[in-house]
Amino acid sequence: MKAFIYIGGAIHPDTITAHPAGDDLVIAADSGYENALALGEKPSILVGDLDSLKMDVPDGVELVRLKPEKDVTDTQAAAHIAIREGATAITFIGGLSGRLDHTMSNLSLLEELNAQNIYAIIDDGANRVRFIRNSSALIGRSHYKYLSVLAADDKVKGVDIDGCKYNLKNAVITRRDQYGVSNEITGNCALIAVKKGGVYIVESRDAK
Q1: Cα–Cα distance for residue pair 152/133, rounded to 1 Å
Q2: Confidence class of residue 55 from pLDDT cuts 50, 70 and 90?
Q3: What's the CA gap between 102 and 130, in Å, rounded?
Q4: Is the pLDDT of residue 124 over 80?
Q5: Contact 96, 66 (CB under 8 A)
Q6: Which of 90, 122, 123, 187 could form a disulfide with 128 if both were Cys (CB 3.0 to 4.6 A apart)?
Q7: How many CB atoms lie within 10 A of CB 6?
């Protein structure tokens, strides 16, 4: 099952192309409910301490209210609920702008989900991020102009980038020497492969 989790923060509705369909589970994390409404979606579950939601909880929405003093963020709690409901893939919408600590936590969540063999991606319309470890990913050409591959470990080995302006073959990248930034896909898609280590794959575009 696939789940969509809407998070707070700025989004760019005109360039968000991922939308739930059919039996996809739709969850909002606190003010992410407002982002969901802006995209024409109606979450069936609302999770959070409701410290940032600026509207009343609509009737018919299951509310999982959390205490303000807690060990996980609203987004983490929403992801845990999605997994409990049987989600094997999660698309997060929002969550890449605003408070930097929350943004970094959301990126780390991608790594946690990858370790659980759950495919996850975060997209706010200006950036789209996924995480892979000892694996590969095929990235289709889209409205995102730039493609960056950033090391999540001290040293990542056997990095291949194919189908881009600047390709790599069996390269090594490190956390302190991030030279895989601002690449561009030249064909229909790019193939990113890693033999040992974890990387964040970031698609992005310039602000308008």
Answers
A1: 9
A2: low
A3: 16
A4: yes
A5: no
A6: 123
A7: 30
CATH code: domain of residue 72: 3.40.50.10240
Q: What secondary structure letter does DSSP report for 15?
A: G
Burial per residue of 126-163, b for 16 or more beta-carbon CB atoms within 10 angstroms, e otherwise: bbbbbbbeeeebebebeebeebbbbbbeeebeebbbeb
Mark residue 22 as left, alpha or beta (left: phi above 0; alpha: psi -120 to 50; beta: remaining). left
Q: Which domain holds residue 145?
A: 132-204
Kindly report the pTM of this predicted structure. Answer: 0.93
Pair 153, 103 in one domain:
no
Which tens digit of pLDDT belongs to each residue from 139-154? 999 999 999 999 999 9
Beta strands in 49-126 (DSSP E): 62-65, 89-93, 119-123
Which CATH number does the domain housing residue 187 bear? 2.60.120.320
Contact call for residues 149 and 183 (beta carbons, < 8 A): yes
Q: Which amino acid is at 141?
A: R
Phi-psi region at 130: left, alpha or beta (left = phi > 0; alpha = psi -120 to 50): beta
How far is residue 17's CA from residue 38's CA, in Å, rounded to a whole number? Answer: 13
Measured torsion, CA atoms of residues 112, 113, 119, 121, in degrees rounded to the nearest 10: -70
Query: Which helix (DSSP H) or strand (DSSP E) does residue 161 occupy?
Result: strand 155-162
User: Of 102, 125, 148, which one is at a domain's C-terminal end?
Assistant: 125
Q: Each residue of 1-16: pLDDT tens digit?
A: 999 999 998 999 999 9
178-180-182-187 Cα dihedral, nearest 10 degrees = -170
